[in-house]
Each structure stands twice: as structure tokens, then as C-alpha cells.
């Protein structure tokens, strides 16, 4: 695989940052992703960056923050301010303010974030200010949220008055970022520059970048001066943002038509200037294809790449008269320039839109083209592709031309899916190879948090920076947090690579996660004679013959693969990098691929390690160096018996399990096999519905080790179950008969406790059981066990027997009801079935145990309004629903609206339930007034329900009795009252209303709504999962981030202290407020949750939940230790503020944690988010960490003053 670039270029990087970019800004070939290409220009062309993080635009803001921290200057020789706002609406408002003051601001956003900016966009365009919004285009959530890219967000703002410019490649991201800033300043009006999210924003490719000197030459200084002079200023004052009436407004919005009409010419002029400098030629509409084309496609974005490349192939090989017009400037739309680009010979046009415009006769670009060409004798059809980030391949382009070629082409078609409902879809065939000769393609199958993606990004940079090769990288992720599948698609070759689709013909395939061999068809893309590297503990043919599935062995032989194995997991364990196999597998890749000579590649790898892990300290650097050295010695070539494997018989077809629901076979199984693209439209549930309890079918088997119960050491505290993030370890109580019938080896011990007897007063047995395939191996249970009654063992050693034991345990009767353990204590609560199980959270997650506990306490009547964030990903990713039901079929109902409106969404849910229950209350009252023909026992039950209408437990108890009695009457439907009561039976029980979200929502974007709900007095429970960062977007700073905390957007440590949300809520006086930390003080957390739900008004529980983004040394299995230390030193204070206590002459405020003790330095050292500051900014670290320590003392003292004041007031009361 040794390759050379056709035209050798010198190369360097831009800006030395975490992306691996050097400060030199000379124009060279550099490996960048689309976000970095755009933001490197935007940052240097701007004075202010106002932003709020949203995937997939977030890295643009992260880059700007890092450059700001490193004092990188813009072309005006100043350091741009980077201001993190509380929401996208706030970012747009601040940007508007900067514009009217003569500034040069920019912002980065996507999807719903862009929509929140719409009101300001209308104002900015109406006032005609020069600004650029850079957008990584993304799906607008409809019946579900998606982070992937189409162009629906951009289409939603096309009427705002912004000029809209589209990039289709990573190179264009940089070029058009510059183009948009230049044209905006010269024209005086705002621009939106967009490119496809993930497909372009996160693709790494070899591009040329601009130097500061080159950027400066382009700037229209006269236009800049006009902008400055027009700004609001008391030295030349005027009024802006006036109120207009009917007699003036219409004329006002027509007053700048001339300026808008001039924009296409301005853009075209700057395109010519960029061409003169770079040789890259652009027009408002670029045509590629046969000069006498009769059939063309018109489209914009990343889909133009496979379209262009396929057309070049067909024109060159077959002289096909086809072509494509790539739309660059979408708004203002220039009919003149479109006609100039289009061959006069065109007879048929297919317009492709990367969005769906529901209810319209066509999508936006299609309608524009129809309008522009309505007088021409041309047939125009429209179609949709790439919606929700769906793949768009050369085979699909071919299908579009095949459709165009028909006498009656299908209009309003789709391509890329199977629409068997409205039959819009086009059929497409096998993959078509259009890559430049000599391009090598590599696939890496990893697991989230193993470092594979980061390692492959480094690999591209190493190769492009140290060879004559061009490179491209695209990365696919599952929605599961750490523990989900990742697939890295890397291409290298002697010519530029423009292939915006995934690899289907690989020269090198590496499986970094051993279980994937059994789960996925990962060798399907392998070429003949290509390389296959497996990470597994099996280094011999004999072991691999037993381990590998039959079809994998046969495929290896059929394709004559060069097969290698390495026990990367063991090497990582041995060098002290448990789970982080990235450097092992990257070293193996360089050795086997020979893309760089071995000795040189090792040298470059070690340099990259030093740069990458500098902030984590020398110890981590040396561990990674050691991993590299160990790898070279431990790669084993597997000389498999090819003839034998070729002749292996196929495994028998697996029989359909009739016990599994249709949903499993229709949706879950294809998704789990990465075959969801083949699911037809008819199989999809309407409106985003997802049934409960579907994670039970996943059985991912991703843990290397799982806990094994040592019954002789167990004290039956159930703490292991209490803290388990995944609900995989549970206590069971067995009757004597159930224990006798248990499978061989199923160990139980006599249950302890005064209530540990069944209805016949016979002693019960006790069992701790795990679900091995659902365990993530986080070690949390082991870390919390007080008697070492759990030990971690390799999954393969115990999986078969433990799965049998788990299946048996689930079939046991609910003996905890007979034993009547109190659910208000740790032990008793864990005999309740968790109504959330196997969520796709990070291994060792601190959020899920708390939510699990809430479901055990209140789950059968819970209604949850969930914020966007980590909790909505592990709690609501289609098709894996972790919310489950009890034996009656009752369980949490869960809904998610937007990031910013969760509190309002939850309030709306509660008010609707109140209205429905009030109606039912009136109905029951009328029923009791007119009770003729109704049995006395039903009347008594209805009276009991009415008398306990507002009591959650008793209304449920009487409600169940009402249902049982009425439904027991054969003719109940003849009674108009009873019939209506049964129609509304799901409202008999009082609901437990919960609003759940993270600190990004509660402290920042959703605070306004949260504050309104806190002031409402409604009976609502709010649970804030406080990880002190935006966990779901990669660990960005929020107002909850503490002083000195290193996070994204606070790369030099946060300057301000953490917002005290609890103290702010307490000022209302009638809100129940608690601060908890489950692992540090389980009893206090349990007590607080019970009190919060019982409180008759609004309750707010703030749970401290350390995140993987904190960089806890030793991994998330160490969070219990860190949590206890956090409470010990006062970093997290535990308290309860209960207004009901005033009625009982008890203190309203209880400070449950003790006076802070020593241990601050130890706390800091255990978390990279604090400790790394010492390596990157040592002087700042001294100051900020000292201030953090002062913040901790001050916060504790403020709470303690409340306690002392209460005592003083109590003494005064007693004296009176």
C-alpha cells in the first residue's frame, strides 16, 4: 500500500491547537475537516464570535475558543472575543448588537439552533448589516431528533433575507467561508454559508488554506469604513429598530432591492479573485458534464461530489450527454447566471433537494428551477435524497439518470430508501467504483470511548503531513454513548479524493471490538487479498476456529484475506490504559499497511502521542509509548487452513422466535445489524412512536469483564443494585420451591431481615444476579460493595451460566411484596423492579442510577418530560427504549420536545392531566349523586377514590379497585357514567409528573422556562442531572461548570464560579429544593427524592453526576471515590430545603453534608478537567484553583449561615 501523490506539494498545518494545527498560516496542503476549514477563515475575518454549541456545528466554536485561548490574532491584528451564550437566540441577539455597533461578528450553528435565530435574522437583513452565519446543515427534528445532515434547517430560513452560499466539499468550506465574509462586507448585507452536517463538516480531507496576508488583500477597506460609520454612536446618533405602521412598512422592505440585486455580481467578482489566487474556479452555478448534455441534474451540497465524478466517468467512457449544475449561491437566486451555466441542448432536468417540504407541490430548489425555467421547453422533475443524512452514492446518481431517461419519468421521487407506501422511491443497483486509480480504502470497526475515531483522525494527519498522499476520513457513530459502534472510513491516494459516501470496497479492515465479529457483516466490503486485523484474545488457529462464526471463516477464505490478530485489549491493560486500545490498533495499522515505512511511522506516532496527551501528563504519554512498542512484537499472522474454511457448511438458518414482537424483526434486528437502510417505509411506526421495553432484546455483550457474586461474603445491603447504571445487577427473593427448581449452580443464601418471609411465614432465599450481555463492565458495583462480595471475571468465562440464571430469575414471582420490605430504604427499594433497564449510557454513568431509583419509587405512574441531552440519547434513541413496565403493564411514559422548552413542555403535560382528571372528578361526583343501578361496592370504591383524589398512592389503590369492579360487571356499558369512567380509567391514578434534564438545559438554555415553572406553584418534580458540562455535545462549559474547570469553551479554565441554582430556587420560599450525590450519600439521596415527590408544590432536585468528560483518572469506575471526596471537601454540599417543615415546627433547611475537610489537592489530581490546567497554563492554574478552593469555602459558609440563622430564630421562638 505504499503510494505517492501525483503532484508533489509542500505542506504544513494551520494554528497549533488540539486539532494538531500549527501556527504557520502559509498556503499548503493540510488535512482539515469542513468545520475547521470554515472556522479558521471565519475566526480570522471576525472581531467577535457569539455562539451556543449544537451538533454538528460545535467544533467550529471549539476551534475559535482554543485559538482565542492561545491568543491567535485575526487579520486586523486583534484577538477575537469568543462569547458563549445561553442559547442560539442569545447568540443571534448579541451578534445583532455587535453589528449595530460597527463590529464584525460571526456565529456557528445548525438545525433548531438556526431556527431560534430566525427573528434576529429578519432584523439583521431588514437593517442590512454585514454578518456571516456559518451553518453545518442538519435535520430539523420532526417526530424525532436527529443530529445528522440534510438541508431542512437552511431551507427554513430562506425567506429571512440572508444571502445563502453552499459548499459541497471541505476545500469549498474554506473558500466559501472567505467568499461569504468578503461579499457580505462589500454588499453590506448578511450571508449564511452552509455545508452538509457530518458528511462535510466532519469529513477530513486534504485542502489548501489561506494565509493572513492573502486574506487581508481581499478585504474591501472602504466597505469596512462605511460599516463603521453607519454604526450607532452617541457622537453621530440616530434611531434604529423603530415601530412602523401600515403606511410605511411595505415601502421600507422594498427600499434595499438594489443592494440585494447587486449581490450576485459581487459574489461572482470575488469568485474570480479567488480563482486568480488559487486556480480554483467557481461560479454562482457551476456546470460539469458533456458540453451538449441533454439530461442534467441540478443540486447543491456534498451530493454534487459523487454526481460529478460519475458524470465524468460516463462522459469519458461512453460519451453520455449528461451533466450536473452545482448551485453555489442559492439566495439571491440569479436566473441569469443559471441560464449562462446550462447547456442550450438540455431537454430534461432532475432537481435534487436534500430535504422534505411537507404539503408542498415540490421542494424549494425544485420550485426555484421550475419558476426560473418555466418559459423554456424543458421537462423538469424533482426528487429528494440524503434526508436525515441518508447515504447518496454513485449508484443512486445512476438511478436518477435512469429515471430521467424514461418516457414518463417519476416526479417527486425519492432515492436511497424503499417507499412501499406512496411508491416514490427509485430502485438503485450495486456500488459503482468511481475513485481515482490507486486510492486505498480502510475500514476500522471500533466501540465508543476506545479511542478509535481519534486515532484515525491522527492517522490521516500523520499520513498527509508526512507523505505525498492525499487523504480523506469520514466517521460514523451509533447513538449509544461510549459503548456504541463507531466506523471510521479512511481513504488515501495519489490524487485528490472527492467521495462523499461510505466505503464498500476495502483494502484494509480492522475489527477493534471483538464481539463485532459475531454481530456485524464487517467483512462484506473486503476486497480479494485485502488485510483483516482482529483484536481478540485468540492468537492461534485452533482458538479462532472455535471463536469465529462459520460464515466469517468461509468469507476470509473465499476472499483470500491476509488475516492478523492482536490482543490489543490485553496490551492496553498491561501498560495501564485499560479499554483505550487506540494506539495499539493504530500502530498495527501502520505496520501492516506500510503506508509509511515502519520505523518512520513509529517515530511519528510517538510525536503525535506527546502532542495529543501533553495535557494529561508525562505518565499517560509514556504509557502510550509503551503500548506502541508492545504492539510491534505482538501482531500475529493467522495461517488459516484455507481449503478447510472454503468448504465449511453454512450454519442452519436461525428459526424465528415467535415470542418476540414484530417490532423486533421489523425494526430492531435490522438496526442492530446495521441494515436499517433497507427497512421499507411501511414498517415505520407513525409519528415517532416507540414501544416500551425494547432494550431487553439488544444483548450487546460489550463488557470484557462482569461482576461475579460471592455469596459467602454478601451482607444483602443491595447497594450494588442501587448504584448500577444499567439495571443489570438485581436482588431476587425466592420461595423454597423456586430455589429447589433453580438451574444447577444457581446459588442462593437465606434472606435476612425481619420481613424476609413469604405469605406462609416460610423463610425466603436471596440471590444477586447479573445480566451478562447487558452489563457494560463499569466496575461501579464492585467499587461500592462494602464486603468485596463481587469480583470482576472475564465475560466469556461466565456468560453462558449467568445468562441462564438471569432468565430464570426474571421468571420468579414477586416475593418482595410478600416480604413487605420498606421501599423507603436502600435495601427495600431495590426489590422493586427498575422501570428503566439497559440504557445506552456511558459505562459507569452517574445519571442513570438516579433516574432508575426514581422509577423504582414512582415509575408505574410517572410521566416524564425530558430535555435534549445525554438523558434523551440514552433514554430515547429509536429503536432502543429502556423504559419498561411492571407486571401490570404500567411504567413511565416519556416525551421530549426541544432543548430549550423542557420545563414548559412538562408544565403543559401536567396541566393537561389536571384538566382531564378534574373532568373525571366531576364525572365521579355526578355518578355518586345519581347512583341508581350501581352496586354498593362500586359506590364505596368511587367514594374512596374521590376522597383520595390528590393522593398518588391511594388514588392508584382505589382506582385499581374501581376498574376491577366496573369491568367485572357484564353490562357496565349500559350505564352512561360507568362507561365514561372506564373510557377515562387511565386518569384514575394521580400521575407523578417529572421534568428531567441536564445542567446545560437547567442552568442555560432552558433557565427562563425553568424559572417560570419554579414560580408556578404547580405540583411538579424537576430532576437536574448536573454533570457541570454539556455532556452530550462533548463536554462544553455551562453556568454549572466550576471556576478553573477545563471544558470546551473554557480551555484555559473557567473564570467565574458555578451558578448556585439551588440557592436561587430557595428564594421563592415555596419550592422544595435538594442537592444530592447518590454514590456519596445514598440514604440522603433516597430521602430527598421521596420528600420531593411527596411535596405538594414544585420540587427541584439537583443531582451531582460526574461525567466521562471530567477525565476521572482510572475511569468512570472510580466515580464513587471522587463523589465521596467531593462531598468530604465541600465541593458538593448536600442539603434539603422543605417548606412543609415550617408547618411541623422543624427547620426548613437541612445541611446534610458535614463541614469541609482536607483533600482538595487529591480531588483536583483525580480529574483531568482540573489537573490539566497545571500543564497547559501553570500560572493561571495556581490562581484559578486557589479561587475554586475559596468558592467551596464561601458556598459552604453561606449554607451554614442559613443553619445558624434557623437555630437563632428557633431559640427566639422558644423564649417567646
TrEMBL record:
4Fe-4S ferredoxin-type domain segment(s): 705-734, 766-795
Alphabetical UniProt keywords: 4Fe-4S, Electron transport, Iron, Iron-sulfur, Metal-binding, Oxidoreductase, Pyruvate, Transport
InterPro entries the record matches: 4Fe4S_Fe-S-bd (IPR017896), 4Fe4S_Fe_S_CS (IPR017900), PFOR_II (IPR033412), Pyruvate:ferred/Flavod_OxRd (IPR050722), Pyrv-flavodox_OxRtase_EKR (IPR019456), Pyrv/ketoisovalerate_OxRed_cat (IPR019752), Pyrv_Fd/Flavodoxin_OxRdtase_N (IPR002880), Pyrv_flavodox_OxRed (IPR011895)
Sequence segments annotated as region (Disordered): 1034-1055
One Pfam family, short name: POR
Biased composition (Polar residues): 1034-1054
NCBIfam families listed in its UniProt record: pyruv_ox_red
Protein name: Pyruvate-flavodoxin oxidoreductase-related
Species annotation: Anaeramoeba flamelloides
